[in-house]
Design a protein that fits this description.
eight-stranded mixed β-sheet, alpha/beta, three-stranded antiparallel β-sheet, globular
């Protein structure tokens, strides 16, 4: 009898311990946060956002060592946070090779005054300019109150530096992003192969820049890898009372969603030989950015066959030297009647030579109605932005935001999905987030993903049960 009681007691204790939820590491994209070149401590300042990354399956590490190819070989994404120490030549080469071979680089800046006083501007630009992005030593601000984030302790002096960004370039990173809280950041200059993704409001300024000339977010595809730069890092800060009523800005607007979107895009390997200006020369080898002109040399720069200073894409008299004022033609060869390319715009007003396209604007240049860098004459979907070769949007049968050719799940009833289009299950309880009434608490399927409600066994109750069991054994022995 006593032995049976022992078995019952042991079973009861083991069963109680088994009810304590466990955590299993999900192997996923590996992120390296560089702490050597900056005074920032991302594991502290970004702690809440890193928890969100953990829930998505990312694995985050932190390095206080210099960067080299051996270190980077173990990671998919490298993150630089306002670096203030200079990079060695071999570090720059390692980062460039890392990106060119399929890695992703994320660079976060600071407000211009800090960039200058803490010596950030030179180190950060020594890396970013390799990929067509330059950080400026200025401050983004907006004097219109409706474009300012409210309830900050510095509002009486610096409210204009807490800008709500609402203008975005269509891109996977900015998909479904409408309000981006930009917290005392700088502006960016962008050139090939980079592309601006987020811009100032009409009343936003930064130095001599104004409106959409104020670029705050930019991305580039370089070789097989990807690069993204933001002139602000505070938008991902959570759990700080630096900003008065705000517990950081991670929870403001679409900030957290934008942060996750940035990392999701970075985790997707870029297409080999990215060619953003579609001139037939991969970005990694392209010395010029010239969308709409494919008459280029081996470096991707427009040809000038007759050497008259007017490139072949704009020259209406290729093979005959002329003046740029006369569109590359000899004097007197262009008049109000002649239309060399047959697009309906006379040569004296035509700024583009496009004999194969008659869908043009008033200057005789091919129109691109949907602004997808494919002109309407070759665009099979001229009114819909598309990233495919034919200018059409990626097919998305279940409307979850993931194109069919990347989508591994068909779930028209669920749009909370991961990068491969499958419903997310944040708490790992087998109930996807679209059906889970408690998406951040592991629960039961029959209880809509929530923990079973009812009497809870606490540590004190368990201890009392054990004492009662021992007392029963002692009584039986007597």
């Amino acid at each position: 009898m006593t032995r049976n009681i022992y078995y019952i007691l042991i079973s009861f204790v083991l069963l109680s311990l088994a009810t304590v939820g466990g955590h299993s590491d999900q192997q996923g994209t590996r992120i390296l946060f560089d702490e050597y070149h900056a005074e920032w401590n991302p594991s502290l300042q970004f702690s809440r956002f890193i928890m969100a990354l953990d829930r998505e399956g990312y694995i985050s590490d932190y390095s206080e060592e210099k960067i080299d190819s051996y270190v980077l070989s173990a990671y998919d994404i490298l993150v630089l946070l306002a670096p203030s120490l200079d990079f060695e030549v071999y570090e720059k080469e390692a980062i460039k090779d890392f990106v060119e071979n399929g890695g992703s680089l994320l660079i976060f800046g600071e407000v211009g005054g800090t960039m200058t006083s803490q010596g950030i501007i030179d180190p950060i630009n020594s890396i970013s300019t390799m990929f067509g992005i330059e950080f400026n030593s200025d401050t983004v601000y907006d004097m219109e109150q409706e474009n300012q984030i409210p309830d900050t302790e510095t509002a009486s002096r610096y409210a204009e530096r807490f800008v709500i960004i609402r203008t975005f370039q269509r891109h996977p990173v900015t998909y479904n992003i409408f309000d981006f809280g930009y917290i005392e950041g700088c502006s960016l200059d962008v050139y090939s192969p980079a592309l601006g993704l987020a811009f100032g409001n009409p009343t936003t300024k930064a130095g001599s820049r104004e409106g959409e000339d104020v670029i705050v977010l930019a991305a580039a595809e370089y070789g097989e890898g990807r690069v993204l730069a933001v002139g602000d890092k505070d938008f991902l800060v959570g759990g700080s009372r630096r900003f008065g009523a705000h517990d950081g800005f991670l929870v403001y607007g679409d900030n957290e969603r934008l942060g996750l979107s940035i990392f999701e895009w970075a985790a997707t390997r870029a297409a080999e030989g990215a060619d953003r200006d579609a001139d037939g020369v991969p970005d990694a080898s392209d010395g010029c950015y010239n969308p709409g002109c494919s008459k280029v040399d081996s470096r991707g720069c427009p040809k000038d066959t007759d050497g008259d200073g007017t490139d072949d894409c704009s020259d209406r008299c290729v093979g005959q030297a002329g003046s740029s004022a006369n569109y590359g033609c000899p004097a007197g060869s262009a008049d109000t009647e002649t239309d060399s390319d047959g697009d309906g715009v006379s040569d004296n007003q035509d700024q583009c030579s496009n004999p194969d396209c008659t869908v043009v604007d008033s200057q005789g240049c091919p129109m691109d109605t949907d602004e997808d860098l494919l002109n309407d004459c070759v665009d099979q979907c001229p009114d819909e932005f598309g990233e495919k070769d034919d200018g059409c949007p990626e097919s998305d049968s279940d409307d979850d935001g993931v194109p069919d050719d990347q989508d591994q799940c068909y779930n028209p009833e669920c749009r909370t999905v991961d990068s491969v289009g499958c419903p997310r299950d944040s708490d790992g309880d087998g109930v996807n987030d679209c059906l889970d009434n408690c998406p951040n608490q592991s629960g039961l399927f029959e209880n809509n993903g929530c923990p079973r409600q009812g009497p809870q066994v606490c540590a004190g109750t368990l201890l009392i049960s054990i004492l009662i069991a021992f007392g029963a054994m002692h009584t039986l022995r007597r």
